[in-house]
Amino acid sequence: LKGRDLWVLVLGRFPTHHKIGIPEFKYVANMHGDETVGREILLHLIDFLVTSYGRDPVITRLLNNTRIHIMPTMNPDGFEATKVPDCYYTRGRYNKNGEDLNRNFPDAFEKNNASIQPETQAVMNWIKNETFVLSANLHGGALVASYTFDNGNSVTISSKGYSRSPDDDVFIHLAKTYSSNHASMYKGTGCDNRQSFPEGITNGYSWYQLEGGMQDYNYVWGQCFEITLELSCCKYPPADQLEKFWRDNKVALIEYIKQVHLGVKGQVTDRNGNPIPNAIVEAKGRPHVCPYRTNEHGEYFLLLLPGTYVINATVPGYKSILKTVEVTDNTNNFSALKQDFSFSEVSIRSRAASCPKTPLYQQLGQASAAVKPTLHILVLMTVVLAIFK
């Protein structure tokens, strides 16, 4: 990095720190330095949110109940290096070291041999230090909302070349939320005759396979649902088009932030009411390869579409607590359903737990391929459970 900082502006009623019960949201743009539209519309978004607070009741409630992080550029060096604007491709896509930042993250499916760049490491640290629930990263070169997984293997890929995550229904909803509120993305026409995206959305892998992408990293290791928004056919359009890009995306940007309030949230506490960090809290039937855990305040956030779910809270060494919840669409109320868990026999602080940065799905794929579906099915279950632990 050429000594340039990665700037983040945080907006909310309590911008300087996390407040219990208030989810964290982020937008990141310009990770490819020559893809400039996202960088500009995030600056417009900041201005719009700040000037609308206290005047517009919806924006006021959104900011009172959400902490919004905005990083207009993840690759300032690449942006500075783009001397001759071009609709298609320039060297400014890469960082100062010539690396593509969206191929630079640890991958859940295969070993990523790219050396981690300063920008990537900074974002990984940021994800680790905040409890991000929902995110989007903004690109150019197409017009579509793309969602996890970008990579895949025998565990996740269907016969139709689609790499499905355990929360596929939520991801489809998130992508459609953006595309349907965008001026034209929902039409799905793409940028040329070769591309068409029904309803303006696509599974990342079924569009093209990608190793070391940021959205998969967010979902697997950051417990944060992220989609990739391709916002312009031209990567670096003329300045006089920027106002129109802002108008085309304005409603979609706001409606997407509201989705951070989908599903269920709460705290896990011990018999004295103290928070239990690193308790596993997941919805039954959708286990994550790296189990989702509570933060230092004992909080969890699970994005779920309306429906009935069994939420399983587990503190290692103790009996799990199961609670059935009825999730409704609370996005317009700016608060997910609240469901707390209290472990009456626990009075310890759970040990720190983190998932290794190894290709976790690779291990699952090997386990399922190695075991014949006969009497060995119990062995398979044990192997899978051991990996999920």
Structure explained in plain terms:
Helices cover 28% and strands 19% of the residues. By secondary structure, the chain is of the alpha/beta class. It folds into 2 domains: 9-261, Zn peptidases (Aminopeptidase, 3-Layer(aba) Sandwich); 264-342, Immunoglobulin-like. The strands form 3 sheets. A 7-stranded mixed beta sheet has the order 1-3-2-4-7-5-6, sandwiched between helices. Strands 8, 10, 13 and 14 form a 4-stranded mixed beta sheet that branches. Helix 5 (168-181) runs antiparallel to helix 8 (242-258) and helix 9 runs antiparallel to helix 10 (377-388). It is globular and about 65 Å long. It starts with 8 loop residues before the first strand and ends with a helix.
SSE blueprint:
Elements: E1 9-11, E2 24-29, H1 37-52, H2 57-65, E3 67-71, H3 76-81, H4 118-129, E4 132-139, E5 142-147, H5 168-181, E6 201-203, H6 204-207, H7 214-221, E7 225-232, H8 242-258, E8 264-270, E9 280-283, E10 299-302, E11 307-314, E12 321-327, E13 337-338, E14 341-343, H9 360-370, H10 377-388
Parallel strand pairs: 2-3, 2-4, 4-7, 5-6, 8-13, 8-14
Antiparallel strand pairs: 1-3, 5-7, 8-10, 9-11, 11-12
GO molecular function, one term: metallocarboxypeptidase activity
Active site: 230 (proton donor/acceptor)
Family: Belongs to the peptidase M14 family.
